[in-house]
Amino acid sequence: MTTVPADPYPYDFDLASTALLIIDMQRDFVEPGGFGETLGNDVSHLQAVIPPLAAVLARARAIGMPVIHTREGHVPDLSDCPPAKLNRGEPSLRIGAPGPKGRILVRGEYGHDIIDDLAPLPGELVVDKPGKGSFHGTNLGVELADLGVTSLVVTGVTTEVCVHTTVREANDRGYECLVLSDCVGSYFPEFQRVGLQMISAQGGIFGWVAPSSAFLAALPSPVDTAVPSPQEVPS
User: Fold this and answer.
1) Which residues are catalytic, by number?
2) Average pLDDT, the chain
3) Looking at the domain assignment, is residue 230 inside a domain?
4) Amino acid 212: pLDDT
5) Tally of domains in the chain
6) Is residue 235 assigned to a domain?
7) Secondary structure of the chain in the HEC alphabet?
8) Which of 35, 58, 68, 95 could be stapled to 28 by a disulfide with Cβ–Cβ 3.0 to 4.6 Å?
9) Which domain holds residue 217?
């Protein structure tokens, strides 16, 4: 077992059954000129997540940890977007409307895709979700079961919406979640602070919270986890 110093107490996990989950690091949410900024949000708070998350992603890949990306968005005819979600916001800026980076939150549009700094590699799972939670309307649960995953290291945006919803869904399904505090972000600093506190409150009611530095320090080096080549296997 691997142990990470965390709030409210150390997080123990088995590397063999742990995956890195990266939630909705999409251009529409994160980049200047995207949907998030058109709503009046300061995207610099989300931009700050990118460097530490990129470091975690690089290490996860180096040690062979499964990496799962999610994207929130809808099919082009919006048939998977309920009115309760569609009718939010200014009419000219609602889901499906033309935006600075294509139709807002529509699958296949430029803004819907993941930012270049965190772009999925071939073979990495990308889950397209129609809602805020990563399990709702997706095959994520099946994919995790196929991988033998029971623990999730959760990152992405936004802390109080899609991250929170996913962690709550995961908790109800029996997954142990570690949320990396500097690898999740909110447009609102107060939401970020309270959102993280809510996860670890009451003895870790939804999961654990730790900085990425603590997580990285607990991981083995890539050399320690490398699969030996045929020449290195003892005869």
Assistant:
1) 24, 129, 162
2) 93
3) no
4) 98
5) 1
6) no
7) CEEECCECCCEEECHHHEEEEEECCEHHHHCCCCHHHHCCCCCHHHHCCHHHHHHHHHHHHHHCCCEEEEEECECCCCCCCCHHHHCCCCHHHCCCCEEECEECCECCCHHHCECHHHCCCCCCEEEEECCCCCCCCCCHHHHHHHHCCCEEEEEEECHHHHHHHHHHHHHHCCCEEEEEEEEEECCCHHHHHHHHHHHHHHHHCCCEEECHHHHHHHCCCHHHHCCCCHHHCCC
8) 35
9) 2-222
